[in-house]
Amino acid sequence: MNTWSSKPVAALSSIVLLSACDVADTGTSLLASITPPHDAALPAVPLTQALMMRGNVTLVPPSGYCIDAESLSQSFALMARCDTLGAATGGAGAPIGVLTVSFARSAKNANLPTPQEITAETGLDAPESTRQGETSVVFKTKGSAPSPDLSPTHWRSVSTVGDYTMGAALFGQAGHRAVSSEGADVLEDMIKRTSVKSNAT
User: Fold this and answer.
1) 171 lies in which domain range?
2) Residue 189: count of CB within 10 angstroms of its CB
3) Burial (CB count within 10 angstroms: exposed 0-12, middle 13-18, buried 19+), residue 63
4) 71, part of any domain
5) Torsion (CA) 90, 95, 97, 99 in degrees, nearest 10
6) For burial by CB atoms within 10 Å, which of 4, 11, 41, 97 has the most?
7) Which helix (H) or strand (E) holds 191?
8) pTM across the whole model
9) Could you tell me which of 107, 114, 109 has the C-alpha nearest to residue 164?
10) Which residues have a Cβ under 8 Å from the Cβ of 126 and sit 6 or more positions away?
11) What domain count does the chain have?
12) At 119, is the secondary structure helix, strand, or coil?
């Protein structure tokens, strides 16, 4: 992991180096490694929300996505389309991809790092297609993919949720919807849902 050189970025060192795996439409790629076996004693329906950071944040997946219960910790979760995680329903219409999310406590009065700061410090290509919100930033970048199955081009986001910073990465196969502009929509949807639910509790 790289060392961050600026104060706002330093607070996020544990969350912006996120990576994830993707799934092909055939179901033969990396997602198979996170799909529970048929005889596993796990809930039939994956999680549709989860309490994070000792209950101070409620993580809500984007539309069509669910949380892989086995991946959960207080600060990390892996999500994929609900049907690829074994849910009987859900996921129809959502782009196939795997999304990782990580949380860290925000430094007091710290601003979010810019996409340029993030990509420079992580060795990624210059950011593209940046979407800047009041408390979030979403951008496309390119770097080493975590698997040969995946496109090195992927989407990242950093956002503020209450007293916490949420970082996310969405990978998909080259030419598939998760790496198109729709990938940014997926991240923005998750940010909005998580912020609304967390602020309401």
Assistant:
1) 7-34+47-200
2) 17
3) middle
4) yes
5) -70
6) 97
7) helix 181-200
8) 0.79
9) 107
10) 116, 119, 141
11) 1
12) helix
